């Protein structure tokens, strides 16, 4: 299998992985030749990248970060929690969250178990899912990214539990923002942006009143849009005033926002999202935390077509846990033409070669079906 950008698909291509919605229902199946109508549906669903079948890479296996069952179950529980909160009388919202705390903590426990058992690099690109309700899937993704940072930092179980709860509930305040603003595909007006910004203080005010939710979770909701140089909101505090968990969630939040499927914009690949974070290193985001995140992340996901500095091209076939940006590449082209027998090049053992470009277009070299 290999990754291609959806906009370059042609009829007759077969998906290597099915497309699911958040409830686990298959929307577009694998192993079925795509029609023009099916390709258009992928565009409408906002799917930026897909895995396709390809004889040269048919043995490459794409591992999921967490199981489909856990993702579907967790997203559903987050949705139930947030909607109950949204539909409750404003003065009783704290009670709604209090009743849901045990199942939220159960989600964190299950995520930690699978994240610790999974020895592969973190890659949510492998979960080709259409996010009908972005806020719920976003909350889950941010939690996974934040927990992976915490695990790499050597956090204790108690610290991971608190970080996970803060990440899971960081956007709960968006439940008081009008849906027309949350789902607006175009540019927000100044007034709409000010309303969006209120979700930080709204989340804080609710969470701090819930007896069995630690106060740190409320701080994470309040501070996850603050930035080290004081340019964030709601209070424009600087890095030294931010809680460490807020700094971690800020990184996870931005990364997931720019790399997730959205109907109105092209998602970034992981290395592009990471470059965006690094562009704000020590100005917006803590550079040491970005580096820790980098170490756990599959920067060049398995199945991605890449070009090396000597002109050779191939597909990432395995990850190197020792170095997240130096995977094993199956070389398919060199000296301007296809190789007769594809071979593997381990970039970890061949330091003279680096990835200089990623290619997600559907080209003639990919076999037609």
Automatic annotation (TrEMBL):
Membrane-crossing residue ranges in chain numbering: none
Q: SMART domains attached here?
A: HDc
Q: Which domain of life is it from?
A: Bacteria
Query: What InterPro entries is this protein classified in?
Result: HD/PDEase_dom, HD_GYP_dom, HDIG_dom
Q: Enumerate the spans annotated as HD-GYP domain.
A: 113-309
Q: Which SUPFAM superfamilies match?
A: HD-domain/PDEase-like
Task: Please name the CDD domains in this protein's record.
Answer: HDc (cd00077)
- Name under which the protein is recorded: HD-GYP domain-containing protein
Give the classification, highest ranks: Bacteria, Bacillati, Bacillota, Bacilli, Bacillales
